[in-house]
Amino acid sequence: MKKKYIRIIGFLAIIILFLSIPIIHILKTKWNEDDTIYSIPKGYSNDASQLNLTKVDTIIQVPKDKIKIESQLRDILKYAKENDLKISIAGAKHSMGGHTIYPNGIVLNMLPYKQMKLDTNTNILTIGSGALWEDAIKYLDKYGKSVAILQAFSSFSVGGSISVNGHGWQKDLPPISSSVLSFTLMKENGEIVTCSREENQELFKLVIGGYGLFGVILDVNLKVVDNLALQYKYIKLSPENYVGYYKKYVSNNPNVNLVFGRLRISDKHFLEEATLNFFEKVETKIPTLQNVKSKETQRLVFRGSVNSEYGKRLRWDLETGMSSVSKNEIFSRNELLNDHVSLIENKDKSSTDLLQEYFIPERNFNHFIHDIKPVLKNCKIDLLNITIRGVRKDQDSFLNYAKEDVFGFVLLFNQKKTTEQEAEMKHLTTQLVDIALKNEGTFYLPYRLHIDKKRMRKAYPDANIFFQLKRKYDPNEIFNNKFYLHYK
Ligand SMILES: Cc1cc2nc3c(=O)[nH]c(=O)nc-3n(C[C@H](O)[C@H](O)[C@H](O)COP(=O)(O)OP(=O)(O)OC[C@H]3O[C@@H](n4cnc5c(N)ncnc54)[C@H](O)[C@@H]3O)c2cc1C
Predict the structure, then answer these.
(1) Where are the domains of the chain?
(2) Of all atoms in ligand 1, which is nearest to the CA of residue 211?
(3) Any residues with CB less than 8 A from the CB of 91 and at least 6 apart, and which?
(4) Distance between CA atoms of residues 237 and 374, nearest Å
(5) Beta-strand (E) ranges in 62-103?
């Protein structure tokens, strides 16, 4: 009898220990975090990389008001010319290569310029370029509408998103450009022009994905779509089957509206497992949009995967386990699109999270995974995530990263803020870009400037013409930033 009790107690102790390991891991992650907020010293600017701290001349908040902004921007342009200063334009500053910064230049903070109005007859949203997607989502939700295309998070500005020509996880769509009908642009001489597929077509193409080099985008006309009730579906699969399953379950299913894939990144089964997550339209009442909820446990599970094989396995197991639990759950489209970047916030001051993206044609999907596997496995930078998105051919932007239908591989790394890790990251990026080029792909431009001009031109063969046209429209190179300095 006594032996039996001992066995039961032993068994229970093992179960409790087994269940408490993940809890202890998550608590330890929280315990090790530094809660002091990262702040930028006065007179300096930085971006989401936290590696671009740069002294600037002035940071100017633009006014909210349409009439005031126009006269203020003209005054700033005049002042900049008279004092031989450059102007960089900033939205939410989530680009990572100093795209919003010029050393000792003037920074225009566009965020206050965020008014919006929906024309309910035409379903066209007119929106200030400083507005964040989260503001647009909240506004449109009241009309039963939704943003057509935006990135994975809603924390970015409309102007910044158009200027990088972002892409999202909306099913089989081109980048944001395809939802832009027109915008007004203040040029270097203070003139305001309307750019669309019919008017000033060349500028329209250059400004979309033009990294703030041709003028200040003011008001944007965007196509919007209906908000929907969407039901979550999920498949666990081998990466080799991804393209086939994607076609079968996503492309060929007219009800699918949002979709993303993920690759397993723990050392165990490294890039050997994948998930395909998609959301199907259902005819039911659309859930009400809630305020963005704090998802602290989800954030800690994510942060707990930094430099931890255990944490990476735990995250994969929890995510795939949770996917089975939340399979068939119904969400509103707006709620799904309204995720904030704080969901993955890094509170460790000694490191930073850096993104990279590679766009690969379907025919080379598996070759690309095969080629990056040994490089990523052996690199000294910690890989945190790989997401996969389908991006359709972009017909609009001049500096085009999707010249045909592609799959975007979004890689997130955690890098220490040391010169060694910076050099390591440069080496890794060069290797990954070479692999993308070998597989007839391209890389995304809003991130760190580790790629040389030669490789950049292989991915973007029209870059020389792009920079010549920059000088045609802005001969004094007033609109300037570190991206231009690096690649021109
Ligand atoms: C965590 C994270 C997740 C991301 N996910 C995605 C994703 O899913 N898909 C994707 O495509 N990208 C993604 N990105 C990249 C992101 O889309 C870009 O960095 C985008 O520029 C962010 O918008 P922003 O408002 O922060 O732009 P900023 O960084 O402020 O500006 C970007 C560029 O736009 C120019 N600009 C800004 N406003 C104006 C204006 N009014 N007129 C003219 N030029 C202007 C700037 O000069 C700069 O060159 C992600 C980035 C992060 C950090």
Answers:
(1) 229-448
(2) 49
(3) 100, 110, 111, 129, 130, 156, 157, 158, 159, 160, 161, 163
(4) 21
(5) 87-90
Give the containing element (helix H, strand E) for 437.
helix 419-438
Decide: 442 and 436 in contact? Cβ < 8 Å: yes
CB contact at 8 A, 224 and 145: yes
- What pLDDT is stored for residue 9 in this prediction? 78
**Rounded CA gap, 296 and 301, in Å?**
9
CB count in 10 Å sphere of residue 464? 12
CATH fold, domain 229-448, is Alpha-Beta Plaits (3.30.70)
- For position 18, what pLDDT does the model report? 67
Mean pLDDT by runs of 10 across the 488 residues of the chain is 73 73 87 81 97 98 95 98 97 98 98 98 97 98 98 97 97 97 98 98 98 98 98 96 97 98 97 97 91 81 95 92 78 95 91 98 98 96 98 98 98 98 98 98 98 98 98 98 98
Ligand 1 centroid, distance to 324 Cα (angstroms): 33
- Dihedral of alpha carbons 217, 223, 229, 230, sign: negative
Tally of residues, the chain: 488
- Coil, helix or strand at residue 367: helix
CA 188 to chain centre: 28
Q: What local confidence, expressed as pLDDT, does residue 10 receive?
A: 73
Q: Does the C-beta of 389 come closer than 6 Å to ligand 1?
A: no
At a CB cut-off of 8 Å and minimum separation 6, what does 156 contact?
Answer: 91, 92, 94, 132, 133, 150, 166
Q: What pTM does this model have?
A: 0.95
Cα(153) to centroid(ligand 1), Å: 11
C-alpha 449 to ligand 1 mean position (Å):
15
What pLDDT is stored for residue 322 in this prediction? Answer: 72
Which residues pair with residue 81 across a beta bridge?
Answer: none
| Long-range contact set of residues 250-256: C-beta below 8 Å, sequence gap at least 24 | 250/171, 250/172, 250/276, 250/278, 250/390, 251/171, 251/172, 251/390, 253/280, 255/280, 255/281, 255/282, 256/171, 256/280, 256/281
Which protein residue's CA is at the shortest distance from atom 12 of ligand 1?
A: 166
User: In the prediction, which pLDDT does 327 show?
Assistant: 78
* AA identity, residue 433: V
In this structure, what token pair is assigned to residue 143? 């009309």
> Using CA atoms in the order 342, 239, 150, 176, what is the torsion angle rounded to 10 degrees?
140
